[in-house]
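Support request from a user on the community tier.

User writes: "When I paste my structure tokens into the form, the page sometimes reloads and wipes my input. The last time it worked, I copied everything first. Here is what I submitted, just in case something in the input itself triggers the reload:"
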């Protein structure tokens, strides 16, 4: 009887471990933590989306208010067209802005939605007009090195 009780506790511990690993996998894959209730779709164009992926969170004031539904390319404007699926619980003014941000130094990318001050609210199918693309680390390093090289050249010239 003692052996059966021990086996039962070990089995429960293993099941709890598997559930914990599954929970972490869903969190890392952005598959958990967001209700799939009623939503409305908003589109935004960005000049550079960096490493943004579908199902990335859309956050406002640090709160997840939606997810990236789709990412496409607009052949007319040569920009990335991002479709956002926002929860119907949250409404934003029409002059709201969207920016692609990064969690931490090398973390996941998400869309930060900044509320505007307009009286009219975004509706299904609206387009965000004010957007800011992703900051690409390689471009920043290149600009820094280029500016540093220019300043050294100016100092050397009489």
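"...and here is what came back when it finally went through:"
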């Amino acid at each position: 009887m003692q052996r059966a009780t021990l086996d039962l506790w070990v089995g429960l511990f293993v099941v709890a471990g598997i559930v914990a690993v599954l929970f972490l996998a869903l969190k890392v894959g952005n598959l958990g933590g967001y209700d799939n209730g009623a939503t409305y779709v908003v589109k935004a164009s960005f000049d550079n989306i960096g490493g943004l992926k579908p199902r990335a969170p859309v956050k406002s004031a640090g709160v997840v208010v939606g997810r990236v539904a789709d990412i496409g390319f607009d052949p007319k404007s040569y920009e990335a067209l991002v479709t956002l699926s926002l929860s119907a619980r949250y409404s934003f003014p029409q002059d709201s802005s969207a920016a692609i941000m990064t969690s931490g130094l090398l973390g996941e990318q998400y869309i930060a939605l900044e509320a505007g001050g307009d009286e009219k609210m975004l509706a299904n199918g609206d387009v965000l007009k004010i957007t800011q693309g992703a900051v690409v680390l390689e471009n920043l390093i290149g600009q820094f090195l280029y500016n540093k090289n220019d300043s050294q050249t100016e100092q050397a010239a009489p």
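Agent notes: The reload is a front-end session timeout and is unrelated to the input. The CA atoms of residues 98 and 134 lie 11 Å apart. Residues 1-32 form one domain. Escalated to web team.
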